[in-house]
Design a protein that fits this description.
GO terms for molecular function: ATP binding; metal ion binding; protein folding chaperone; protein-folding chaperone binding; unfolded protein binding. With 104 residues, this protein is mostly beta strands. 0% of the residues lie in helices and 38% in strands. Strand 6 (73-77) and strand 7 form a beta hairpin.
């Protein structure tokens, strides 16, 4: 793929939602919601503020991120669906190394 986002935009590949519930019930395609989790595929260099100072982007390709339900613009590049959004539309980065405690 040859796509480079400009300024503070990122290219995100949506990560597929779970096919089953925790109890083992299979969720049909018609009942699934679009996932709000994705992986950064490409990112722009950053943006400039009103004084002309350059601020680099905080995410890099490979980061898993959360974003809002209606964030970004859906595009198709080389037959695959992606989202293009501004870095400010991202809600956070999911840390792969941290352990998550489950509630009892």
């Amino acid at each position: 793929m040859h796509f480079r986002p400009l300024h503070d935009r990122v290219l995100v590949r949506r990560i597929d939602a779970e096919e089953k519930t925790a109890g083992g019930i299979i969720i049909p395609d018609t009942a699934k919601e679009k996932s709000q989790e994705g992986e950064i595929v490409a990112s722009g260099p950053g943006a400039r503020n009103e004084q002309g100072q350059f601020f680099p982007i905080d995410v890099k390709p490979g980061d898993r991120v959360l974003f809002g339900k209606w964030s970004g613009t859906e595009v198709k590049i080389d037959g695959q669906d992606y989202l293009i959004m501004k870095e400010s539309d991202l809600l956070g980065v999911i840390d792969k190394t941290g352990s998550v405690k489950k509630a009892a």
